[in-house]
Each structure stands twice: as C-alpha cells, then as structure tokens.
Amino acid sequence: MPHLLTSALPYANGPLHLGHLAGAYLPADLYARYLRLMGKDVLWVCGSDEHGAAITLRAKKEGIKPQDIIDKYHALNKASFAALGISFDYYHRTSAPLHHETSQDFFRTLDQKGGEFIVKTTEQYYDPEYRQFLADRYIRGTCPRCGYTEAFGDQCENCGSDLSPTELINPVSVLSGTTPVLRETKHWYFDLAKHEDFLRTWIQEGTVDGVQVHDPTTWKKHVIGQCMSWLNEGLQPRAITRDLDWGISVPHPEAEGKVLYVWFDAPIGYISSTKQWCLDHGRDWRDYWQNPDTELIHFIGKDNIVFHCLIFPAMLRAHGHYVLPKNVPANQFLNFEGDKFSKSRGWGIELHEYVEEFQDFPNGEDALRWALIRNLPEQSDADFTWDGFTEYYDKDLADKLGNFFNRVTVLTHKYFDGRVPTTGAGSQVQRQLRDTLATLATHFEAFRFKDAATTFVELATYGNTYLQEAAPWSLAKADPDDPRIAEVMYDCVQIAAVLALTAHPFVPLVSAKLRTVLKQEIVANGDWAVARDLLASGRPLIESGHQIGQAGVLFPKIVDRKDDTLKNIIQRQRDKLVAALAERDRQVAPTPTPVAPTKTNATILEAPAAKSTIEFDDFTKLDLRTATILTAEAIKKSNKLLHLTIDLGEGEQRSVVSGIAKHFEPADLPGQPVVVVTNLAPRKMAGVLSEAMILMAEDATGKLAFVAAPVGFGNGLGVR
After folding, report:
1. How many C-beta atoms lie closer than 10 Å to residue 201's C-beta?
2. What are the two backbone dihedrals, phi and then psi, of residue 559, each rounded to the nearest 5 degrees?
3. Which of 92, 148, 165, 366 has the fewest CB atoms lying closer than 10 Å?
4. Residue 132: its H or E element
C-alpha cells in the first residue's frame, strides 16, 4: 500500500524559522522515517511555493527580479532542511515547467467539465500611476476588525482576520503610495459552495458516496472544529485568477494577462512534485494519487487547515479520480520565548542561522530536533525557550541516553572484552522491549510524536535503572564468575540496540552514532519490522559474541561543561533577545499621563489606574470569547497567581496565568465559565506562559467575581 506524505510548500520569499519546522516538516519527517523503518512504500514530497504577490513585492523592494528572490530562498531553505535531517524524497519548486503544465491541465479539466467555475466581472482596486490592477498584497490599509493600520488586502497579520481589499479603511497602493481606484475586471471563481454537502459528510463521517475512506475519530479536534466552523458559516466561491505578471498564465482565451491565484496552484505542487519524482525513478505517479489504497497524509500548520481539508479536497473531487487525505494532523503554532516569531523585531531564530551558529555544537542538528519534538504544538500552541533546549539536551540525551550507552560499553569491555556475552535475555527485559516497540508504533501511527519521544526516554531510563539495580560491578566484586554478570550485560546490550534503532526517527545523526558504537550497519528500510519480529520470537537484536565499540562521551553537557563553547552559543542567542526587547520597549514607550487613582470594574492582577477615554474602534480590537476552566493550580513562589488551563471549544485549549489566588481556591475552579481576551500577545509570568486574559469584576470591597456567560452558553462564542 503506497503512503503519500506532503508538507505545506514553504513560501520562497524569505528564510524559515523554528516555528515552520515544528509545524509541518519535523512531524512529517518523524512519520516518514518511522514508515520507512517499517518497510512501507513511502513517498514524501514538498517544494518551494514560488508565485504570488509577496514575492514580487520583495523583488520590487530589493530592486531585483522575482526569479532572483525564489532562486535565493529555494536554495537557502532546501539546504537548511537537509542540514537538519529533513528527509524529503523530493523537493520540487512551483516555477518548474512541469508544475506549470500540471496546474494548467488541472484548470482546463475543471473548466471543460462545466459548472465548476463561476466567471464574473467585479470592481477591483487599480493603481493609475502604475497602470495595473493590484493584487491583495499590493494594498494596505486599516483593518476594520482590530484597527491595525498595516493590514494587507487579504489578511490582517495583527488579528489574523481574512479580509478583502474593499474592506480596508483608507486603502493605499503599496506600489505608488497613492489611493487606488476601483475598476472592472473579469475573473474565474471556484464554486466551493457546490461541494459543501460532500465536504460536510467527508469531514464529519469520513465517507464519500457511502464508502468509508477515513476515520474522523482519529482527526485532531481543532482540525474538525475549524472545518465545521467554515462549513456552518457557508462556503463561498473563491477567485482562482489574478491580475498579476508573475505566476502561471491562465490557459483560457479570455484570460490574457492573468495568472492562477497562488492558493490554487500551490497544492497542485504536491502532484507535480510526485510526477517529477516518478519520472526520475521510473514509477507511475498515478500509483500514488489515483490508487484507492493510497494513504495520503497532509502535514501542515493550523493556518492551512481550510486549504487542505476543504478547498483542495473539493478541487480533487471536482477533477475526479484523485484520492483524498486519510488524515491532516495539523499542528498549532510554536512561539519563541513567550512571543510570536518576528523577523522585523529580531525575535526568534531562522533555520539557516541555527545551522550556522550551532555548527560546532556537538549533535547540534539533533539537539534542535529533540528540543522541538519534546515540545511540539500538537494540540495547543507551545513555546520554545533556550532553557528548555538546554534541559532537554542535558537531561534526556546526556544524562539518560548517553550515560546508559557509556556505562554499557565500558562494562562490556571491562568484563567481556567488548563482546556480547553468551547467555539468554531475561524474560522481563524481552517483554519490556516488545512493549516499547509496540507502544512507540501506536504513538507514531496516531501522530502522537511527543508521546513517542516520552516512551523513548522512558526506555533509556529503564535501562539505567535496570543496570543500577542489577549492579554487575558488585556481583563481580563478590564473584567474578557470577553468571548474572553476563545476563545483565547481555540484556543491556539488547536495550541499547533498541534505543539505537528507535532513535532514528527522532535524532537520526545520533542514531547513526549509536549504531556505530554497537558496530551495526546504519539503519535501513524495514529494520524496525525486523526488530519487532525478532523480539516477538524471543531472538536478540545483537547476537552473543558480537564485538561492540566504546561510546565515550556522546553528549557533552551544556550546563556542566568546562569548555564554555556550548554555553556561549546559547548566551549569544539570549543576548540577541534582550537587545530585541530593549529596542521594542524603546519604540513603544508611552508618554506618562497623570491620572487620578480610581477603581475599575475589570482586573487581572490588581485594580489599575483609570485610563484615558477610548473610541469604540479601540474596544473592537478585543477578541472576547467564552471559555471554561479545565484545571487550576497554584504557582510556586507566588501568593497571587494561579495557572489555569481553559477550554475555548473546538479542541482549543490555552494556558492562562491569573492573579486571583487570594480570592479563589484552585480546587473550586474547574468547570467555571469565564470570558477571556484571546488576542492578547502571549507573555510569561512567574515563568509560566499566559496566552489569554480572564475578565474579572471587582466590588467596592475589592472582592473579585468572574465575568461569565451563563452555564451552557457554549465555549468559544464571541462576546459582544
């Protein structure tokens, strides 16, 4: 059965950062490596998304051609992926002739079917000075939802709202800086609403024409929730053509000067990438895209859910003969040290920067992979910190995995000259290894990669505990010929062999080192399945008499290392963030305005001083939602703060730090309905990330009460 994996095509107008890696590429790499180890027929495709207005904007800004932009960032991002062990089978690009041909053929097929496109003439913004219609990204103005003054014509990057250019307040052409005018133009629209019933049944029930094609209970709740939100609001036709001079020309006699909208051609890039790989390897691309047995999985971030779960499936269905995804395990967002990644503010680290900065860091590539895996935003937004990076490396890789390998190899050489002793594995250890492989497989197949990483670490912990409790050094001191010494070291070598094998999806370069220490060949396709079968039959992964090497210090620790190289690298990154914070504070520092102290009817920590009068538009910037408190616990070293987990509905949960500890007992709060501000920038308080603010009311005596909708009102509903 073919397994076809795709990852969202990264946009080739800039470098990628850690959030991108954690969203769509590292999870897919974990899954692809696991499937290959199981001996499956796997094809994982991706590539650069190289069309669209954002690329032309950057080219104009830098005074170069769009081709120069995409060549630069295609090469940069592809090299960064390779350096970090991202094992695509093929990394294509949408500027390739084969992709243009595939996209145009797709358009022609839908057009010839009739009824899939709506052609209509509308008014769109035109820049008279530049004599051209303006793509959405060529227009900026004030967002009508939040008041952000630098919103684009398609989206507000401040509040995340989808927009149309005509919704912007005070629109301005990015090209000339002048106010654009509305002129008539004709465009083609994909009639998405026509497929609404099919999509609803496919999402909710997993059936197509009465045939079960996927199990909706295995899909993440936030994926289903976002899809149903769009379906319940009613799907609308989406323009698939644009007046632009950079992109794939529309193959229609009445569409001269128009190109395919980038959202339409980008997912077709998965198909063209597959075609190119198959051409290079003598395969038929239809074996993957038009074979009903194919397991198609899309790996994306949550901002791409609608495109991969509604729009692209509708396109495939309209075309006919294509398989639909079995699952779309979209991840949520990864923040960086309590805030969103921002290149303009210098907040975060890009992939190529990490590769360059950490090139002398032992196991640097896998250290990053491991820190991200342990903190993947699988069900809710997560936060990458340098403290967490250090802790995961030192405690997991150095103290547990590296320590175990070092002790096993040293003791095997001490007592048996480095050869696996002749004996049989203990039944307890055999059972543990079989169970670990089975548990890991279950987690991988359910896309629970954080849980899989935890299971992996637990096996290393088990090995250390087993070795410490068995204490072969004590046995040898009492009787050098005690047969239990051989049993212990034989068992430990088998544990080490399973660790070296199962490390491959998580930390492939480390896995290769571990296999080298054990003098085994580097992991190959099918090895996991072979190991599973060997353990099931009671046979060892490494036979008695096999010579192993010496591990030495595989993972020099960051915190305790005498050489400060590792600490200095991380300190430079921390210093960069301190500078970014200082610059931000310098730019936004307000001029103090004296105000009379007074009480307010909403508080989060303490009653603040009265604020100046605001306009209604200021109030509309707040995104107020109903929610329910799921958990509450005290925060150490704070007598004011509680750490809450809230449920916003549709599978979305958030961490909130609230200054209500003096007013409420944590045990009394689960189930409490609340109203929260959800679009507040995340921040850390007392070392805990807070991703929203709970509204409270305060009476004249200072007593707090929750501002909340009635019980049963429903989570996630907007508050007006």
Report:
1. 14
2. -70, -45
3. 148
4. strand 132-133
pTM over 0.70: yes
From residue 331, how far is each of 273, 380, 588, 671 by CA, in Å?
Answer: 23, 8, 32, 26
- Calpha distance 524→695 (Å, rounded): 55
Pair (529, 665) in one structural domain: no
503 sits in which H/E element: helix 483-506
Range of the domain at 667: 616-706
Judgement on whether residues 275 and 308 belong to the same structural domain of the protein: yes
- pLDDT band, residue 599 (cuts 50/70/90): very low
Q: Are 95 and 183 members of one domain?
A: no
Q: How far apart are CA 34 and CA 621, in angstroms?
A: 45
Q: Which two tokens stand for residue 458?
A: 């637990």
266 vs 311: CA distance, rounded Å: 12
Q: In this model, does residue 618 exceed pLDDT 60?
A: no
At residue 680, the 3 state secondary structure works out as: coil
**What pLDDT, in 10s, does the model give residues 491-502?**
999 999 999 999
Same domain, 289 and 185: no
Domain count, the chain: 4
- Residue 712 has a pLDDT of 53
CB proximity list for 222: less than 8 A, separation 6 or greater: 302, 305, 330, 332, 379, 650, 651, 652
φ, ψ for residue 548, nearest 5 deg: -115, 165
Q: How many residues does the chain have?
A: 720
Sign of CA dihedral 613, 619, 622, 625: positive
Same domain, 415 and 481: yes
Residues 63-70: contacts with CB within 8 Å, 24+ apart? Answer: 66/246, 67/95, 69/12, 69/13, 70/12, 70/13, 70/95
In one-letter notation, the amino acid at residue 62 is E
44, 373 Cβ separation under 8 angstroms: no
Residues in CB range of 145: below 8 A, 6 or more apart = 156, 159, 161, 163, 620
Shared-domain flag, residues 20 and 128? no
- Rounded-to-integer distance, Cα 378 and Cα 551, Å: 34
Q: How many whole angstroms separate alpha carbon 309 and alpha carbon 293?
A: 19
Place of tokens 């397994």: 3
Same domain for 521 and 394:
yes
- The helix or strand, by DSSP H or E, that contains position 652, with its residue range, turns out to be strand 652-658
Question: How would you label 84-103 residue by residue, b for 16+ Cβ within 10 Å and e otherwise?
Answer: bbbebbbbbbbbbebbbebb
DSSP 452-490: HHHHHHHHHHHHHHHHHHH-HHHHHHH-TT-HHHHHHHH
Where is the domain boundary, 303, 333, 363?
333
Least confident of 76-85, 470-479, 573-582, 607-616: 607-616
Q: With contact defined as beta carbons under 8 Å apart, do 316 and 345 qualify? A: no
CATH number of the domain at 161, please. Answer: 2.170.220.10
Average pLDDT across the chain, whole number: 89
